[in-house]
Amino acid sequence: MGLFNALNQWRNARYENHLSNMKDQNKCPDCHGRGYYAFSANEFVYYAAPYECPGCSGSGLYTDWNNSTT
Question: Which InterPro entries has this protein been placed in (predicted)?
Fold first, then answer.
């Protein structure tokens, strides 16, 4: 169980580091500021606008991503 907790803590710390880096650069953490989300399309993935990032609505900005997640 200790290994599982250590992996979860490492993953959470890595994600928080990613969020802080993206916030400093004012880039969306989901699409890395590109405005679109590159994914492998299959029958289980559906987005209304398939080429826009669902987190920032295609703008690529951290502020838009933060407003949509809160």
Answer: HSP_DnaJ_Cys-rich_dom_sf
